[in-house]
Structure formats: C-alpha cells, structure tokens
Amino acid sequence: MTAPIPSVADLSAEQAAAEHARLATEITGHDQRYYQDDAPTVSDAEYDALRRRYDEIEAAFPALSGADSLTRKVGAAPSEKFAKVRHGVPMLSLSNSFSDQDVLDFVGRIRRFLDWPADKPLGFTAEPKIDGLSCSLRYENGRLAVAATRGDGSEGEDVTANVRTIAEIPQRLKGADVPEICEIRGEVYMAHADFAALNARQAEAGAKVFANPRNAAAGSLRQLDASITARRPLRFFAYAWGEMSAMPATTQMEMVAAFARFGMPVNPLMRLCGGAEELVAHYHAIEEMRADLGYDIDGVVYKVDDLALQGRLGFVARSPRWASAHKFAAEKAQTELTAIEIQVGRTGALTPVAKLKPVTVGGVVVSNATLHNADEIARLDARIGDTVIVQRAGDVIPQVLAIVPERRPAGAEPYEFPTICPCHLKTPVMRETTGTGEETKVRRCSGEFACPFQRVEHLRHFCSRRAFDIEGLGEKQIAFFYDKGLLKEPADIFTLEARDKASLTKIENFEGFGKTSVRNLFAAINERRDIALERVIYALGIRHVGETTAKVLARAYGNWGAFHQAALAIAGGDAAAAAEMDALDQIGETVVEAVAKFFAEEHNLGMVERLAAELSVRDAEKPKQDTAVAGKTVVFTGSLERMTRDEAKARAESLGAKVSGSVSKKTDIVVAGPGAGSKLDAARTLGIQIMSEDEWLALIG
Ligand code: IVH
After folding, report:
1. For residue 402, which of 333, 465, 464, 305 has the smallest C-alpha distance?
2. pLDDT for position 38
3. Residue 259 and residue 239: Cα distance in Å, rounded?
4. Which of 89, 93, 137 to mutate to test the pocket of ligand 1 (most atoms within 8 A of CB)?
5. Taking the alpha carbons of 349, 352, 358, 364 in that order, is the dihedral positive or negative?
6. What is 255-282 written as a DSSP string?
7. Predicted pLDDT of residue 48
8. Could you tell me the pLDDT band of residue 511, with boundaries at 50, 70 and 90?
C-alpha cells in the first residue's frame, strides 16, 4: 500500500526541496528515454502528472526555481535541445564510385573538365572513408570555439560542450602558422574495442546496447549531458576544412599535414597517387587491411590534391566535382523469406518488401529488404519460404540479391503480384507508361490523392525532417490523426489547434496523448508557419523534385509568389515559363513536366492554396548578391580559350548568375569567343551587352 500523496500546501520547505529533486531526476530519466532512446517507459498521462506535481511544487516554493530547473529546459525534442549552428561553408557529401571502372571515369571526367593533357601528371589523394559522423571544429585564435554536427549540411547542432570531452581533440591548436579562424572538419568515430567495451557496460547496466560503432558514436556525441559523452570513448580524424582566415597550404596533402602539426589526429593511410591506377591499387591495399584497422571504414575517398584545381572544378549539387568515395562491396548473408508485404508510397508506387527471418549482415540485424518491383520478384523467382541472399551496403536499404534454389521448400508457389491496391478503395493497380508508350516496371495505385496510403505518405513526407520538420508529428501520429479524420491534407496541420479548441473531443484525451504532448505539438506546428521557400517546394511532394532540386528552384524564383505563378503558368501551357525553368542548372524536362502535371491537378491547386494561406514563406537566400553578375542571365557562345564550357558555367553559377543556352530578351550578357555565330547576331539585334572572355574574367574577378 502506498501512502496518500500530501498536498503541496502541506509540505515543509525541506520536504518540498527533497521531492522537487527526486522528481527532477525521475523526469530527466523519462525525457532521456522518450527523446533520445525513443523508448519511453511511462504513458504521457503519467509523465504529465509528474510534471504537474513538479510545477506545483515550484510555484509554491519559488526558491526552488533556480537556473537548473526543468521548467527552463524540458519539453522540446532533441534537435531543439541543441542550439543550431549555421555552417559558413556548407558541409557537403561525396559522390560515389563502386567499381574500378567508376574510378577511371571519375579521373577522366576531371581531366576533361580541366582540359588536362593526357601526358600531364595530375595528383590525387586517397584515404579511408571513416564510418562515423562528421563534425566541424571551429578554432578562433587557436582555441576551440564551436563544434557542430553536419546536420543538413547548412545547419548543424551545437555540440561544443560534448566535443570538449573528447581527449583526442585539442582544446588549443599548436604552432605559429595556425590561422586566426580555422575550421577543421573530420569524422568522430568509435574504435571496435571501445565499442565492445561500451556495449558490455551498457548491457550490464541494463541500458541501451548499440547496433554498431557508428550509432554508438552518434548517440554519444549527441548527448544533452556532456558528462555522458565524456564517459564514451570517442575519437577523431581530421580530413577537411570550412572557413579559414588564411590557408596554411596549397594542396590537400599539405593541408592535412598542417592539421597534424596543429595537433589534430589524421589518418595514417592517406597517400598521394598519380592517377586512376594508383588510386585503385591503394583502394585494394586498404581493403586488405580493413578487418585489422580497429575501426569501421566503408570505402576510400579520392580528392584532387591541388587546391587551385579543386576551386576550378567546383561542385555539382551537394558534392564536390573533385572528390569521390569509392565504396567497398556490400556485405551479404543468407536467411529465409517469410513473407512479401506490399507498401504504397507517397506517389502510389507499390513496393514489395521482403520480410525476413532476422539475420545479422555487417553488424546490423536485418529483417526487411526491398524487392523493388514485380519484375524483380519475377526475375529472382522469389517465393515465400525460399532461402535468400541479402546484401547491405552502407546506409542503403538491404536488398535481396538472389535465392538459393537448392533450399526451396517443396510446394513453394510462384508469387503473384496484387492487381488491386491494398488501400480500402481497392483501386486497380496500373503500370505507368513513359512518354514513348512503354510500360515502366513500377505499378501504381490509380487512386492518387484519394488513396489513404498516398495521403498518409504524402503527409509523412510533408512533416519529415528535410521538409517541414514538425517535431512530434511522425508516422504514427499522422496515421492516427488521419484515421480520426483530423488530418487529410497539409493545411489541416495548421488548423488542427483551432479545430481542437472548438471541439468537444480534445486530442489531449485520446489514448497516447496528454496535455504536455499536445501543447508541444501545437508549439512545434506553429513554429513552422514561418518557413523557408525551399522546404515548402520540397514538402509539396512533386515527383522528381527532391531536396536539391527544390533548393535550385527556390534560389531561382526567390519567393513563393514567383514560384507559384511560374508553376501555374507552366501547367497552363506557357512555353516561355517552361523554357525558363528548363534553362536552370540541374533542372531538366522531367522536372518541368512533373511541375506541370502537379499544378494541373485540380485537387493539388486547392491543397496548395489552402496551405499557402496558413504560412509565411521566407524568401530564398539569394546566392552571392554581392557579385558583379549575381542575378544576371549569361549566355556563352563560340569557343572559350581560358576555360572549358562546363567550368565557365559552374563558375558563373557559383557567383549567382543564371546560365542559359539561348539568347532572348531576358539575357543580360553574352560572352562571345571565336566562332560565335547566330547567338552573337541575336545579341546584337536585341542590344544585349556583349563581351569577350577576357572582359568576362575581368568582370568576375
Ligand atoms: S571529405 C567536401 N573525407 O563521408 C567533402 N569525407 O559522403 C567533404 N567521410 O559527410 C568530405 N571519411 O562524413 C571526406 N576521409 C574522408 C571521409 C569523409 C568519411 C564522410 C563525411 C562526409 C561523408 C560524405
């Protein structure tokens, strides 16, 4: 029997202080399990009761509401708990190579881009690709000032306090040539032995056991309480940089050597290579050593050594043109295919998923694998009960590679792909046809937005991290609200609070919700009313418009009104508007057609309008406003002598110019080299500014 809980008014100051402290520990534990481990041990209602009691005590004994009071911290999700850090120089990803041939192609592409003679040497570095999480360390006047995770590449989380506990990372850089501002980037990771010891300790304490060293490193670095990070054996390798007030070297190799002089750990297996053959040889040498390194690596990274050449090569989307990650072949295992489940995606595509008897592949337990589509199942002749070979490569979804025919159980029947959607509409499943009338492999539910799976998936995409990033509105909650009829389309998210206020059946009374979680949810939603244009475009879920494309569109159109108007014009058959979008770098016909199709759908139009009415969409950051050519439309014609066409285009775009293939009234500058013909004539007729390559170079500096 438990004693009745005394009313707060009856507590002595001493009792209140003791209970306040006890509650703080208990609540912090629940927060940890809820927000960080995704494994709460109490219901929302129980949690709310604890919080209420805690708040009541503090209200009655104000002396207890000191700086470390929970009333000042708790309630937000983990990413909110870390301050955000904007990366002055974005943290990029790498394009991949999977075969020796890909490496030859990578080197060939670079030589062509630079117009590099076949007999002229071109140096590359090759180094292990560390399987941890990247981190940017900003040193100011030699002292560690800020440490941030990569986040979405533009904005990461402030993990300075945690990084200060990593013994391998110096608090101060040493040496006379340390630049005043020196942002060193690299990988935080956990060594195999440390990982095994940590997991043994965790298991003994009944705490969470990590699936692999990478997860352990990420979980340890992203701790709210730096004293927990301090007890986790993290390590670091420096391999890149962000902002530098001065460059200590002119090559990749020397930069990393400078970091080593400054006191940073660097990887001992980095080598300078003369070309594709040497790169591949070093790759295979590292592959041989892989099992004995004592830490996880998932490939070898190649980079052009000369930093001036890196500058010329620039970037494609989010990865440097001058680097490539050569991935190791995936790891494989055999297991039983127990079922095939059909999932309906946001676009209505029916994707078969292999349900597997759980098996460990490369350190991770796999129980699902993709089967891609109906043709793939037929090609594999995969049947329920078969033994299959599964492969896992890096972060990608595991795949079924093949079946083992000898192990097929008697009576296993060929799999029949459903001809109706598993949604309640029971709509027929269609094969999509391409422009040339060919059938594609993908089968789609023809229910479009009326199909509940597509709606739910669409909403899930809308709320996802790279879209609206609405904390507390995950898959489960969306499905729940959908079933209750509270959410049907994105705009409904933003009217949820008002409707809830006016309703008799309050969300806080639903199973699994409570006052606090509902309050937090509404706060998270309201926080997103003010939102970046690129996120809105991405969140709409237009086919073929991923994150990168959305960014390009946002930058090009600048504000919601301009984008919306252009999209509507394109949908209405305005050829000039379509050509303008088509002319954008990285945007092609597929995207333009997808935009046209999306904005031609009646239900999408209403959906978009209702959504826009709820939002205040922030204009896109105009890239490089301060350059001489920002916002100008440039056409290159004739042959260029000082740079290749690709290079000229990439450079102009990096300075905020739009490069177009044809001359029109909208062209601002035509750069004409020898042999320029009709485009030059057109420029003259239209009275457009014409310049030589040298004049152009002088203009852009
Ligand atoms: S260079 C501008 N070098 O791989 C290029 N990245 O897929 C910056 N990584 O986010 C990255 N080892 O987390 C580079 N030796 C290495 C690396 C490495 C691991 C990671 C890094 C990056 C990801 C890109």
Report:
1. 333
2. 43
3. 9
4. 93
5. negative
6. HHHHHHHHT----TT-EEESSHHHHHHH
7. 62
8. confident
Give residue 103 CA to ligand 1 midpoint distance, Å: 17
Q: Is the Cα torsion angle 354, 358, 359, 365 positive or negative in sign?
A: positive
State the Cα–Cα distance between residues 440 and 430, nearest whole angstrom: 10
Of 321, 285, 332, 253, the residue nearest 128 (C-alpha): 285
Mutate to test the pocket of ligand 1, among 89, 92, 94, 137 (most ligand atoms within 8 A of CB): 94
Q: Which helix (H) or strand (E) holds 690?
A: strand 689-691
As given in the structure block, the two tokens for residue 344 are: 């309906």
The predicted structure's pLDDT at residue 434? 57
User: How far apart are the C-alpha atoms of 310 and 320, rounded to whole Å?
Assistant: 8
Q: What span, in angstroms and rounded, lies between the C-alpha atoms of 680 and 692? A: 11
Strand-pair partners of 388: 335, 403
The residue whose CA is least distant from atom 15 of ligand 1 is 129
CA angle 393, 398, 403 (to 5 degrees): 110
Long-range contacts of 68-72, Cβ-Cβ distance < 8 Å, separation of 24 or more: 69/24, 70/24, 70/27, 70/28
Ligand 1 atom, smallest distance to 128 CA: 15
Residue 461 corresponds to which tokens in the numbers above? 């995409």
Does residue 624 carry a catalytic annotation?
A: no
Q: Which of 163, 159, 149, 157 is nearest to 80 (CA)?
A: 157
The predicted pLDDT at position 76 comes to: 29
Range list of H helices, 421-473: 452-463
Provide the token pair at 470.
Answer: 């609405």
pLDDT, residue 602, reads 82
- Tell me the C-alpha to C-alpha distance, in Å, between residue 329 and each of 289, 323, 325, 389, 543: 15, 19, 12, 15, 31
Q: Which residues contact 573 (CB under 8 A, 6 or more apart)?
A: none
Relative to the CA of 92, which ligand 1 atom is closest?
2
Reported pTM? 0.52
Q: Name the residue of 92, 96, 129, 295 whose CB sits within 8 Å of the most ligand 1 atoms, as the mutation to test its pocket.
A: 129
Catalytic entry in 81, 129, 515, 632: 129
Give the tens place of pLDDT for each residue, 604-660: 899 999 999 999 999 987 666 678 898 889 999 988 888 888 788 878 877 888 888
If you take atom 1 of ligand 1, which residue's CA is the nearest one? 240
Angle at alpha carbon of residue 273, lines to 270 and 276, rounded to 5°: 120
> Are 364 and 417 spatial neighbours (Cβ–Cβ below 8 Å)?
no
91 CA to centre of ligand 1 in angstroms: 9
| Ligand 1 interacting residues, C-beta cut-off 6 A | 92-94, 127, 129-130, 134, 150, 187, 239-240, 301, 320, 323, 325
CA 91 from chain center: how many Å? 11
Per-residue pLDDT of 293-340, as tens digits, reads 899 898 999 999 999 999 999 988 778 999 999 998 777 889 999 999
CA angle 669, 672, 678 (to 5 degrees): 95
Q: For residues 15 and 173, what is the distance between their CA atoms, to the nearest angstrom? A: 50
Residue whose Cα lies nearest atom 18 of ligand 1: it is 129
Q: 312, 130 in Cβ contact below 8 A?
A: no
Counting every residue written for the chain, the total comes to 701
**CA pseudo-torsion sign 348, 352, 357, 359:** negative
Q: With the C-alpha atoms ordered 303, 305, 310, 312, is the resulting torsion angle positive or negative?
A: negative
Give alpha helix (H) positions in 400-545.
Answer: 452-463, 475-483, 490-502, 515-527, 533-539
Contact (CB, 8 A) for 578 and 570: yes
* Displacement of CA 423 from its chain's centroid (Å): 30
Query: What are the pLDDT digits (tens) for 409-451?
Result: 999 999 999 988 887 777 788 876 655 556 777 788 877 667 8
Q: Rounded to the nearest whole angstrom, what is the distance from the C-alpha of residue 93 to the centroid of ligand 1?
A: 6
